[in-house]
Amino acid sequence: MAQNKLNLLELNDFPWNALMAAARAARLQAHAPYSRFLVGAAVLDEHGRLHAGCNVENAAYPQGVCAEAGALSAMVLAGGRRLRAVVVLGDAGGALVTPCGGCRQKLREFGAADLPILIADPQRALARFTLDDLLPHSFGPDHLSLNP
User: Where do the catalytic residues lie (predicted)?
Assistant: First the structure.
């Protein structure tokens, strides 16, 4: 679905412009001294609140935090438990910057298969996916039985 002419006006089911603005602002706060690859993410929770996060690298490289994980942490801290929409914003020269595998699973913890995920660069939306598009046949909390 990667199309450079994705129109946010056609995606009026969520406050995409506000999510894009939050992800763009978060991206500018990223701590990426090693890769210099800044990423921002914003999520919309079940209460209609926006939460943002940025990537934070660490000299012990695998110990860094992805932007999506930061946004999810902010959501949980604020009392949110369900995702309604996600924006991931990076700048790879027009290439799509989708969530990594670990973040896809983290998003699955709080989002349903039809969760809309908008991929953008600093200037525009590039593509829209569902979580199921990015993580088909996923394992999530609904697979776990609380009854013995």
Answer: 68 (proton donor)
